[in-house]
Design brief:
With 497 residues, the chain is of the alpha/beta class. The protein is built from 17 helices and twelve strands. Bound molecules: pyridoxal-5'-phosphate (PLP).
């Protein structure tokens, strides 16, 4: 029987009195739990749980897992979020009992191996990024941004300069940039992009002054375009007394090719879960290490991992530093994966990661630009943005049928591909942001290109197929805002209206 049909036929799996366990009778003697347990700790009513047998539970979760789409079962061209394949070796290393059985609070002398991983990774990242020092403690990209901005704020305060309350953020920035700045108590000043997608230096100049704490930049920016004016921008921002912040969430195209530290950036974060292996999605786990240039090391948050004169590693709490921004040393398993990834790729091959991610993105872009609107042409880096279908294929910019990016994205699911990032960046109404990553074969890229062409033809010939897509998934079009804002995680939630 078709599985979807079967699960619809028997949606409600709970049957009163059915169980999936058997416990021996209680053999504790000399105690009467009924009288020994204080009333306050006793349940007044039975917990409300579904009553199911073990085979039903096993099938339920196994079938549910089959409805999940991940980078292990298909191509996942999510621009900006970088869903690249994660080698299983990295998971194996993270799962080693020697790491898993450590207690986060045990004395540093007894956890030297784990601290070696931490120290090795912070030094490797410093080399890759051209920074002086890193903290690996932040839990995510946005958390790294907040930590980095706190470093910038603390740099100004320590110099007694309290007027610098504003931060410049380009209009193409990832949404977390203004959000982190606001959480840090900074006022956001937006700088515009030029038609080629890069920061407009003429728009920047009048914004600079003695109230500017710094400027955040993403490079390549969220349109996949390399910001060519960085030396001039960095000069201007430094001249007015501000610091340069580099959003390095996607470091893929830069690996082994160029370094933020060499471009004049003072503070930055990296998303280990995008560039340095770790399965992510659905909110975590991740890690957003923060790097600083020479002179700012002391400001990084506590605890810091430092090598002592006798060669052993220790945790340092320094007075000048930011306080603790995470429990212990962050998401340690993510750090182990990144360390393994860097060791297995090796210094000599890192450059290939960057080059291949750029080649793959350009290959898709050039193959599809006759079908999809390409607002910013020319060479892209690891990702690029289409602005929906071209007018002759019924794109939203045409008089005709107005097939939207959402329709294309939903139709892709029918062909077994994850949709790209849609409606971001906000610079274009029908944005479709594609990032293939370096880990895909030419066959996969070609299959994706063929399907994207086929969808364009469908948009012209049979637009309703697209408007009503997806047709082959267990659920059809959901209210995606509600699905995010009001998710129902527990069984009995469904009983509520
Ligand atoms: C993903 C991303 C972030 C945020 O990272 P999270 O780990 O999701 O908090 C910030 N900036 C850019 C450019 C990103 O792509």
């Amino acid at each position: 029987m078709n599985r979807t049909y079967y699960s619809k036929l028997i949606f409600e799996l709970s049957r009163p009195g059915r169980t999936g366990y058997s416990l021996p009778p209680c053999t504790m003697t000399g105690h009467d739990l009924n009288t020994e347990l204080p009333d306050a700790l006793k349940r007044q009513t039975s917990p409300r749980l579904p009553e199911v047998d073990e085979p039903t539970v096993a099938r339920h979760y196994t079938n549910m897992s089959g409805n999940n789409f991940g980078v292990d079962n298909g191509f996942y061209p999510l621009g900006s979020c970088t869903m690249k394949y994660n080698p299983k070796l990295n998971d194996e290393m993270a799962a080693l009992a020697a790491f898993g059985r450590l207690h986060p609070s045990q004395p540093a002398e007894t956890a030297q191996g784990a601290l070696e991983v931490y120290d090795g990774l912070q030094r490797m990242l410093a080399e890759v990024a051209g920074m002086s020092a890193f903290t690996l403690n932040p839990y995510a990209g946005a958390h790294g941004e907040l930590t980095g901005l706190m470093v910038i704020r603390s740099y100004h305060r320590k110099r007694g300069d309290t007027r610098r309350t504003k931060i410049i953020v380009p209009d193409s920035a990832h949404g977390t940039n203004p959000a982190s700045a606001a959480v840090c108590g900074l006022q956001i000043v937006e700088v515009k992009s030029k038609p080629d997608g890069t920061v407009d230096v003429d728009d920047l100049r009048p914004l600079l002054g003695d109230d500017i704490a710094g400027m955040m930049m993403t490079n390549p920016n969220t349109l996949g375009i390399f910001e060519r004016e960085i030396p001039e921008i960095a000069r201007l921002v430094h001249e007015c007394g501000g610091l340069m912040y580099y959003d390095g969430a996607n470091l893929n195209p830069m690996l082994g090719v160029c370094r933020p530290g060499d471009m004049g950036f003072d503070v930055m974060h990296i998303n280990l879960h995008k560039t340095f292996s770790t399965p992510h999605g659905g909110g975590g786990p991740g890690a957003g290490p923060v790097g600083v240039r020479a002179g700012l090391e002391e400001l990084l948050p506590n605890p810091q991992v430092v090598r002592q004169a006798d060669g052993t590693l220790a945790l340092r709490e320094s007075d000048g530093a930011l306080g603790q921004i995470s429990s212990h040393l962050g998401n340690f398993a993510v750090l182990i994966r990144a360390y393994t990834y860097l060791l297995t790729v090796g210094r000599q091959h890192l450059r290939q990661v960057g080059q291949l991610s750029v080649l793959n993105a350009n290959y898709i872009k050039e193959s599809l630009k006759a079908y999809y609107e390409l607002p910013i042409g020319g060479l892209c880096k690891h990702e690029f943005v289409f602005d929906g279908l071209r007018p002759e294929y019924g794109g939203a910019h045409s008089e005709a049928d107005h097939i939207r990016t959402l329709d294309v994205a939903k139709r892709l699911l029918d062909y077994g591909f994850h949709a790209p990032t849609v409606y971001f960046p906000l610079l274009f109404h029908e944005a479709m942001m594609i990032e293939p990553t370096e880990s895909e074969s030419k066959e996969t890229l070609d299959a994706f290109i063929d399907v994207m062409k086929q969808i364009a033809e469908e948009a012209k010939e049979q637009p309703d197929t697209l408007r009503t897509a997806p047709h082959a998934t267990p659920v059809r079009r959901l209210d995606d805002v509600k699905a995010v804002k009001e998710p129902r995680f527990t069984y009995f939630d469904y009983e509520q209206p």
